[in-house]
Amino acid sequence: MADQSIVSALVLGLIEGLTEFIPVSSTAHVLLAGHFLGFQSPGNTFAVLIQLGAILAILLVYFQRLLEIALALPSSAKARRFVLTVLIAFLPAAVIGAFAHGFIKSVLFETPMLICVMLIVGGVILLAVDRMKFTPRYTDIMDYPPALAFKIGLFQCLAMIPGTSRSGATIVGSLLMGTDKRSAAEFSFFLAMPTMLGAFVLDLYKNRNALSFDDAALIGVGFVAAFVTALFVVRSLLDFVSSRGYAPFAWWRIGVGIVGLVALLAQRSAG
């Protein structure tokens, strides 16, 4: 049983790393996979805590860029405005996440059928937006105004519903408000840093009494797997969406959602 749990943690970590930064909802994939694997995690902490691996992956990839921005803060108004825009975009999710944490984890995260439906709905929306012909007004994330960032942050709050996708919600919101596809994905990367770190810290605090050494071992396996796979995704995603757009991710969401619904219905019938 322990070996099976380690294998499940490894599989879930790989899924987390592969899906965290693409608009398909890593939470949905991890929760659904965990459901069908029979993987149990008190309060679903595993799904959030292994995100630390993905967080460190994006910090590593963007370390040089982050360092340059940090060093420029004292002398560059543009750098200071960029940091402010990221914090403004992060604020709505921080407030709602803090107050609605219990409902999100105990109700929404425990509803696989809702997750599948949201995968399909989100996929249809992403596909429609990807096909729209926009004339981008913003192509450089350093030029995003604070008002735009706040609106993107409101879109990110939709990801409180598992299956919606944090990156998907921010990317769709960005595109609808005049950004190009590449910068929309890149801004979702930067917004992920405080958002995912905040979710990690909050979940760790809320479940500090439920975690055990065994949980730590499983989380460690998932963390390493998520870190390695997320490195690959972050380094390749911007070029991919610049040339292919978001349609492949939309179709993937729809496919996974349909397969998940069929499997859940079959499971209920068998039960």
Count of separate DSSP helical elements? 12
> Low-confidence runs (pLDDT<50, min 5 residues)?
none
Radius of gyration (Å):
18 Å
- Overall 3D shape: globular
In angstroms, what separates the terminal alpha carbons? 23 Å
Q: Average pLDDT across residues?
A: 87
Instruction: Please give the domain count.
Output: 1
- Structural class given helices, strands, pairing? mainly alpha
Protein name: Undecaprenyl-diphosphatase
Catalytic activity: di-trans,octa-cis-undecaprenyl diphosphate + H2O = di-trans,octa-cis-undecaprenyl phosphate + phosphate + H(+)
Main location: membrane
Function: Catalyzes the dephosphorylation of undecaprenyl diphosphate (UPP). Confers resistance to bacitracin.
Give a concise summary.
This protein is an all-alpha fold and 271 residues long. The chain has helices spanning 2-19, 26-37, 45-49, 51-61, 63-72, 77-106, 112-131, 146-156, 166-176, 181-206, 213-244, 247-270.
Which structural traits does this protein have?
271 residues; 12 helices; mainly alpha; transmembrane
List the helices and strands and how they pair.
Blueprint: H1 2-19, H2 26-37, H3 45-49, H4 51-61, H5 63-72, H6 77-106, H7 112-131, H8 146-156, H9 166-176, H10 181-206, H11 213-244, H12 247-270
Family: Belongs to the UppP family.
Subcellular location: Cell membrane
Main location: membrane
